[in-house]
Amino acid sequence: METNLAGKTYEVQTESGGKWTLVASYNVKSQAIQQAQALLESHKYSGVKVIAESDRKGEEVIFNEQSEVTDKGLTIVPIDSSPRCEALSDFYQLEARLTAGRLLRQYLDDAGMTAMELAFDFGRLKMLERDDKLYVGALARLAGLQVDKDGAEKPADRQGALERLFNQLKDNAQKMMGREDLGAAVRDGGLQALIDKVNGEAATDDRHPLILAGLAAFMGEQGDWSSKAEAVTGLLSADSSVVAQAYVDEALAEILDGAQAIGELLGGVADAATGHRMLVQLCQGRLPEVKNPLSCINELNKTMGAFELENARSAILSRVARGIGGIKPMTREGREGERTALVNLIRNLEDYAGLMGGPQMAEALTLRAKMALGGEDGDLSAEQSISKIVGFLPSLPSRAGYVLDLSATDTGAKQQAAVVRNLAQAMRGLTGVDALTGGGQDPAMAKRVIDALNDKIAAAGLPVELKKTASATLAKAMSSVAATPAEDPAAVKASANKPKEQRWDSGDAKPQAPAQPPQQAQPAQQPAAAAAPAAAAAPVKPANGKGPEQRKLVKGQILFEEGDPGNEAFLISSGSIEIYRRGAIEQNLATLGPGELLGEMSLIDDQPRAASARASEDSVLVVLSKESLKIRLQRLEQTDKVLHRLMGVLVNRLRGMAKTAE
Fold this sequence. Notes:
Helix content: 40-55%
CATH topology of the domain at 546-662: Jelly Rolls
């Protein structure tokens, strides 16, 4: 730690209206310089200087710079909740830092820093303290939120306690100014080096603030928000410890919680709906690669897909929910554009047991649906809005999860009858593995769904008896899951060793062994002939050149991926196709077999694929395109005009239903 060997004092002074005023006096030069730079960057003073004083040399100006005064009028941002802080250690917890970040969003965005960085920046804390409007307003707001309305403590007493804690925070930040070794540990050896250093030097209770101080110093050395995010994600690797991942997760959550940082990462987007969709894909690590990005968004997307960063994911989804829950239009295309954007968001947000984003997202979508899905005669009622969203969710677990989440919100409490009715309808069908997994026949996945729904039931704002009934329904379904035969170990091993995924249309990468019909047994002395590679897979047609196009896939081959243009539907002739979504944990949505249709909405809808599909075994598919549908209808007109007219009406009605839904 730097010491004052020369016996000097350092005065920081500011100039305003031609007069110089003493701000603070320090014994350490670096602390005075840091305070002066922070004051200069605030643009509240026309000049800032530091004067060193000693008995031997007298006064010496060691820092003197001018600045253009711009009154930015920074204020606190209204928030509606805050964790209660009783000790300094509470200030360093993620929930408290996120709360401070939202409350002081204007101040932090102006400084280009997170609440974590502020907590260890003595100069900035001093500046905040001197800004009566911000400082007193922030303490008063936090005190009002932290006081129990039915308790004996008064807001004024709580505000006094928070002020004392702030002074402790400021004192600790001043101490950390002398710990340049913490930031250096991250720069030189990575985050794990800092963790190991602190664990070897400090008592258990002191470790968390020290690790945060080192990480904050490292982040403070970066430039804009994208640079911070890129530097933090760069601290992760395949062998990163759980502790290191947790600190990176928290740091990213603070960065991604701010609108300015999100805007910088996304770059220019066409409208809010596009931004929301990109963020939902980003939080799962499945955002299509951005061409010529101006930020680290592609690197961040890879990190989100490779690691389970739940806090960062929650921060992104919370940002999306706050955007959806407002009244500002998401598109520039009127009601039709709003409807399409909302349905696309619901498709992207669907999870295996509800909607990503929990109660906050469920309420935001419900409120948005009232406006976006209304007609010429006005907005929908909340009850109608709930029914519409339930109708867009294809699986029973996702429907149940949505209304359970909604029940925990103010909107859900007001619409409890609609919530209970839709919950009962969904729960009645959850009787076995098929219903829980969308036909996937995966007991492990079924258990995950049940566990997730039980968690939502516990948090639901429903009568106790109703929650018991819902839990009993899941317990019965769990018994069905337990009775499902376990997978054959050999099959599990074979699945683990399945070939690397390849797209059916991936050029040179096409698999060399397309599915073949069963052949007669070959003589034992000719095994080599059976192993000879076949020609590359390609769309094939019947030998007579007539009939629908067929497509052959080998096990593991990808038919299409989420986000691809939807221009074909497929009828499974043989084999099976798995429908799934990528992310940190791959989500299996359904497994379809012979006679089942997939991608059928592409015949009447121009939306991109909402999920990915791959062959879970060698398969043959019949390809149905919009053009082939048109040709078939024209052919039908020549032979049966009545049936042709009927089919035309049905197709148009389906197309109209799709547009109405979206």
